[in-house]
Amino acid sequence: MALFLPEFDLQRFNTLAIPARANFYVAVTNHAEVLEALAFAAEHKLPLLPLGGGSNIVLADHYPGLVMHIKLHGIEQVAEDDSSVWVRAAAGENWHEFVQHCLAMGCYGLENLSLIPGTVGAAPIQNIGAYGVELKDRVAELSAIDIRSGLAVTFTADSCGFAYRDSVFKHSARDQYIITSVTFKLDRVAKVMLEYPSLLQQLQLSDSALNTAITPDQVAAAVIAVRQEKLPDPAITPNAGSFFKNPIISAEQFDLLRQRFADVVAYPQPDGSVKLAAGWLIDRAGWRGYCEGDVAVHAEQALVVTNPGRGAGTNVLALADKITQSVREQYGVVLQLEPRVYPSAR
Ligand code: FAD
Ligand code: EPU
């Protein structure tokens, strides 16, 4: 039986450590409890927030609804052939522990995504990505429960509409499904991905073509080392990772920008557009290391807004607004938030 707790403090369940309450909180550990929680929300006409590790949300205020903490567990190998293994993980599994588990089983392909906080079930929402790999490269399918009907549904990787920090779960399927498990297609023989500059640097390689001797465990260790150097540990300095997405602009807009800033960091996209390193833009605009009351901009990575004072979400969002305005004024580029704000206002 699910236990519904009223006026629940969410501070230790969001990595920005924002002190905000939910009208109701329930932890769900199996399918029946998910259905029970959906029925409770429908009966009391409550909005629903499915919660994983709370590492990509900003609580702007108290949440006037039901927080459903996803605690579904289990990892199993569901199929294999000569070269691939299909592994299914329940939505409540910790992402990094799952990556480590796959490595220990000799199943490769997720190592570049080591140490990303959060859960397996949240990973498809923004198609998590790091160091040259995105979740979409490895998802075979996912299972979900339709919030309105309570029915179980399956999404193929194609039907998830994955793109950079994006999926259908942010658009046409937003707030309509509880993801219950994700199935990954992994390799038996590793093909390590070493394109990302800071990864090559960490491994002291000058060229990704020199990758033959590098093992997936070494890749994971290098990714972990780079992350620990650049990104603050939320347990010590509350944060939600990158606070903004890297903006994608047209080739024409990029040419104009490059005339003014020859060293702007940018990645050409297959369709001709250009992705900019928002961290570079924010850093160059003077924000890296900035502090204001409870909140700050991380000194090692300007894309990360932190909340060392563990204060209100409105302070975090006010600083984000100032950064957005300054980047727009200086470069004519509009930044978009990466984490989702609750209650929904933007
Ligand atoms: P939550 O914050 O709990 O939820 C995020 C969203 O997903 C919410 O809208 C929530 O309702 C929804 N959701 C969660 N679970 C479910 C479910 N089962 N069904 C339906 N909806 C659900 N992200 C990257 O992509 N790459 C990185 O390198 C990266 N680095 C980070 C580093 C740090 C230090 C931090 C704090 C964050 C970083 N992130 C990164 C962002 C974050 O870790 C990911 O977005 C992660 O997938 C969020 O998982 P979560 O379980 O914490 O999600
Ligand atoms: N840079 C600066 N100053 C800064 C920060 C970055 O000049 O303060 C420059 C770096 O020198 C580098 C470039 O910007 O040339 C890119 O920096 P980095 O490699 O740190 O990556 P990022 O683009 O800032 C993205 C993701 C991260 C992910 C890393 C590694 C987004 C929004 N962020 O950061 O994801 O871990 O690449 O792949 O795409 C997250 O989403 O929460 C997250 C942490």
Descriptive notes:
The chain is α+β, with helices and mostly antiparallel strands and 346 residues long. The chain folds into three domains: 5-70, Uridine Diphospho-n-acetylenolpyruvylglucosamine Reductase, domain 2 (2-Layer Sandwich), CATH 3.30.43.10; 75-187, 2-Layer Sandwich (Uridine Diphospho-n-acetylenolpyruvylglucosamine Reductase, domain 3); 239-342, Uridine Diphospho-n-acetylenolpyruvylglucosamine Reductase, domain 1 (Alpha-Beta Complex), CATH 3.90.78.10. Helices cover 23% and strands 27% of the residues. The protein has helices spanning 31-43, 95-104, 197-202, 216-230, 251-260, 278-284, 313-331; strands spanning 5-9, 21-28, 48-51, 57-59, 63-70, 75-80, 84-90, 129-130, 133-134, 139-146, 152-156, 177-187, 239-242, 248-249, 266-268, 274-276, 291-292, 295-297, 304-306, 340-342. The strands form six sheets. It has a five-stranded antiparallel β-sheet with strand order 6-7-12-10-11, with no helix packed on it. A hairpin with a 5-residue loop joins strand 10 and strand 11 (152-156). Flavin-adenine dinucleotide (FAD) binds next to strand 3, strand 8, strand 12 and strand 13.
Kindly give the count of domains: 3
> And the CATH topology of the largest domain?
Uridine Diphospho-n-acetylenolpyruvylglucosamine Reductase, domain 3
Order of helices and strands: EEHEEEEEHEEEEEHHEEHEEHEEEHE
What fraction of residues sit in β-strands? 25-35%
Residue-averaged pLDDT: 96
Low-pLDDT regions: none
Listed once per kind, the bound small molecules are:
flavin-adenine dinucleotide, uridine-diphosphate-2(N-acetylglucosaminyl) butyric acid
- Per CATH, the class of the largest domain reads Alpha Beta
Content-based structural category: alpha+beta
The main sheet comes to: 5 strands, antiparallel
- Helix share, percent: 10-25%
Compute the separation of the termini in Å. Answer: 35 Å
- Record field, number of beta strands: 20
What value does the Rg take, in angstroms?
A: 20 Å
Spatial strand arrangement across the major sheet: 6-7-12-10-11
Oligomer: single chain
Query: How many DSSP H or I helices?
Result: 7
Broad shape: globular
